[in-house]
């Protein structure tokens, strides 16, 4: 399904006046804290399909995501289940498990019993603290920085946080199923192209992508190789569950640097208009 952007969010319009660049954001771990929602649903799902024998910790989930190919949490859950049974001497082929079963159980933990009606969602999605709000995005636009979102979350989940909770009217967004999974950069390139067309921006403006996983940063590297006519900047954002100083934070931060981050910040709102502008000027 091709994302639609016929209308522009009012919070975006000022970005056309003194356009200096584009900032695209991942959602999970950047716009909202998913430590007790998506990651909790992963742990629940793995525990369910291993008969209660294995419940992965946040560090173990982070370790899987550090491999750079498990941006899809349903596939990540399935992979952890397979690895557990392989550790018990069983082959994957001998395990009675389907992807649809994993998805259904995960979604019922995350969204709740009523999967289709967002007004009835009572799962973990209701327990996600927001990490940015509309005023932050308005500040970016006022400084000439257009913004959008590229996320591995489903369209329903992404719309829930961007529209229902933050209050954006027409957020520029490419979500799961609308482009290949990261680190394939097609979704990021789509958002940038749509913003460029919708707002009448220069096709050579610099682009920043902010994400909290290795796959997010690999995505920028791939975008640079496919669209070298503009500068691309990778910003790693430390998710809330690794904020406390210590070895855990240091290890997570190092993974982001090793994956190609140009900057690593503690929270997305550290990317002030001034900080983004300075980053863009470094590539001038």
Q: Could you tell me how far the N terminus lies from the C terminus, measured between alpha carbons in angstroms?
A: 36 Å
Strand content: 5-15%
- The secondary structure category is alpha/beta
Share of residues in helices: 40-55%
Rounded radius of gyration (Å): 19 Å
Please report the total strand number as a whole number: 6
Query: Total number of helical segments?
Result: 10
Largest beta-sheet characterization:
6 strands, parallel
Read across the widest sheet, the strand sequence of neighbours is 3-2-1-4-5-6
What does this 3D model show about the protein?
The longest helix is centred in the first third of the chain and has 15 residues, at 73-87. A six-stranded parallel beta sheet has the order 3-2-1-4-5-6, sandwiched between helices. β2 (145-150), α6 (155-165) and β3 form a beta-alpha-beta unit. The radius of gyration is 19 Å and the shape is globular. It is an alpha/beta fold. It has helices at 38-49, 58-65, 73-87, 99-110, 134-142, 155-165, 186-199, 214-226, 247-258, 273-282, and strands at 21-25, 145-150, 173-174, 207-211, 232-237, 263-265.
């Amino acid at each position: 399904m091709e994302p639609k952007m016929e209308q522009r969010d009012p919070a975006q319009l000022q970005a056309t006046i003194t356009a200096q660049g584009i900032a695209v954001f991942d959602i999970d771990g950047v716009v909202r804290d998913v430590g007790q929602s998506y990651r909790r649903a992963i742990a629940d799902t793995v525990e369910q399909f291993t008969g209660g024998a294995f419940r992965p910790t946040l560090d173990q989930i982070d370790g899987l995501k550090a491999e750079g190919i498990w941006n899809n949490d349903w596939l990540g859950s399935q992979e952890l289940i397979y690895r557990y049974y392989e550790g018990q001497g069983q082959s994957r082929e001998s395990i009675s498990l389907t992807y649809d079963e994993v998805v259904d159980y995960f979604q019922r933990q995350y969204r709740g019993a009523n999967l289709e009606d967002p007004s009835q969602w009572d799962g973990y999605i209701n327990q996600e603290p927001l990490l940015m709000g509309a005023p932050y995005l308005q500040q970016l636009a006022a400084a000439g920085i257009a913004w959008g979102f590229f996320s591995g979350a489903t369209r329903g989940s992404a719309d829930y946080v961007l529209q229902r909770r933050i209050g954006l009217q027409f957020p520029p967004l490419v979500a799961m199923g609308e482009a290949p999974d990261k680190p394939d950069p097609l979704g990021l390139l789509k958002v940038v192209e749509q913003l460029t067309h919708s707002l009448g921006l220069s096709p050579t403006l610099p682009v920043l992508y902010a994400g909290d996983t290795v796959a997010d940063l690999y995505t920028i590297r791939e975008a640079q190789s496919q669209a070298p006519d503009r500068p691309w900047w990778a910003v790693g954002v430390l998710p809330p569950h690794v904020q406390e100083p210590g070895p855990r934070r240091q290890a997570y931060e190092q993974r982001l640097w090793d994956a190609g981050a140009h900057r690593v910040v503690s929270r997305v709102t550290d990317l002030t208009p001034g900080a983004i502008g300075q980053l863009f000027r470094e590539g001038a």
